[in-house]
Amino acid sequence: MGRSAFPLTREESPWSAGLAEINGYVAGAGMDTGTLRQRDGSGLSRRNLVPPTEFVDLLVAVRAEPWFDAWYAALPVAGNAERFVGGTLRSRMRGTPAADNVRAKTGSLTGVSGLSGYVTDADGRRLVFSVVLNNYLASSVKSLEDQIAIALASYNATGGTAARTAPPAAPEIPRTPDGVECSWLKPITC
Questions:
Q1: 75 Cβ partners below 8 Å, 6+ apart?
Q2: Cis peptide before 187, with omega less than 30 degrees from 0?
Q3: Would you state the pLDDT for residue 94?
Q4: CB within 8 A of 153, min separation 6: which ones?
Q5: What pTM, to 2 d.p., does this model score?
Q6: Are residues 112 and 149 in contact, defined by beta-carbon separation less than 8 angstroms?
Q7: Beta-carbon contacts of residue 163 (< 8 Å; ≥ 6 apart)
Q8: Shortest CA distance to 44 belongs to which of 130, 137, 103?
Q9: How far apart are CA 174 and CA 109, in angstroms?
Q10: Among 81, 134, 161, 167, whose Cα sits 20 to 30 Å from the Cα of 188?
């Protein structure tokens, strides 16, 4: 049986090749690639503060990579109830212009939340965005992240009614108990 009959190992996978490319880009931008590996879980780290502009620069740069289409297709899709399609965004932004439109990575720690990815606006332009909120005191800021993504999905250059559509109110998420990291809870509340 030929080698092609077996699945690729992680070392040989397109994912691995893509990660190597991202590491090269990050190193070229003067960032520590070891720090990037530490953030592979949530995308956020308490050890350093990556400004949203750097996430945007990275998201723009990877569009030119040969593996971009596969990577883009693997990002969670807002409002898509299918667990392996919607992922962390499956219950967010449903019934809005952002549903089945926003493809983004979430990240959260207690007092820190982020949403970075791609959205197609009402004029058909693919936009890149990153929202990172630090040291917030509210129980959750996910509804604010959602409202920003919905506004981007609704935007059109002529300023018509689509840009003025008010996003639906997000349900209140319970407060994380003191001393408990929000990412430990199911469902995640931060």
A1: 103, 104, 105, 117, 118
A2: yes
A3: 95
A4: 96, 97, 98, 101, 102, 119, 120, 121, 122
A5: 0.65
A6: no
A7: 122, 151, 154, 155, 156
A8: 130
A9: 15
A10: 167
At 41 the pLDDT is 53
- Report residue 134 as tokens: 């630090």
What amino acid is encoded at 5 in this protein? A
CA distance 102 to 149: 7
Q: Is the dihedral of CA 116, 121, 147, 91 positive or negative?
A: negative
Q: What pLDDT is attached to residue 161? A: 45
* Beta-carbon count within 10 A of 119 CB: 25
Residue 3: partners with Cβ closer than 8 Å, 6 or more residues away: none
Mean pLDDT in order along the chain per 10 residues (190 residues): 39 55 66 53 62 91 94 95 94 96 92 93 94 86 94 86 46 62 61
